[in-house]
Amino acid sequence: MKVLALALALGLVASGTAWAAGDTAAGADTARVCRACHNWGPGATNKIGPVLNGVVGRQPGTYAGFSYSSAMVDFGKKNPAWTPQLLAQFLHGPQSAVPGTKMTFAGFTDQTDIDNVIAFLQTLKADGSSSAATSQ
Ligand code: HEC
Questions:
Q1: 17 lines ligand 1 (CB under 6 A)
Q2: Which of 76, 77, 117, 135 is the most exposed place for a label (fewest CB within 10 A)?
Q3: What CATH number did the domain enclosing 37 receive?
Q4: Would you say 121 and 35 are in contact if contact means Cβ atoms under 8 Å apart?
């Protein structure tokens, strides 16, 4: 039931977008590459990149205490929230989605990786807890 509800919720978010509901557990695994620069989970602190707790729905460039590029701050002025679609573009090619960003990750070429990582990011609540048991 819980899995079904999550699938439905993700489906609603995805409807009308290029983003398809991904696999949360696979996304947690794929997101290990993000750990080089990002922290998440209880008590997470900024690293080379900002904390990713609650990033889906958050205004780009606004996590407290992180020194963003002006490119990301400007992007956040134009885009009030990280939606799955914006994240999909950003994770496909950070530099093309946000020219001048200081995120030096090359981007994923596989759309499945992107969908799975976004599904995983959606489980990360702003308070550092997770709606999935597979987040760590
Ligand atoms: C090499 C280091 C590095 C890696 C690897 C990396 N990031 Fe980042 N990330 C950054 C930096 C630095 C920023 C801040 C960008 C800026 O200010 O322009 C950032 C910003 C972000 C943001 C915007 C956050 C906000 O608060 O607006 C998201 C979302 C994000 N990264 C997701 C990811 C994901 C998901 C992965 C793994 C697939 C990843 N990053 C891998 C360094 C990295």
A1: no
A2: 77
A3: 1.10.760.10
A4: no
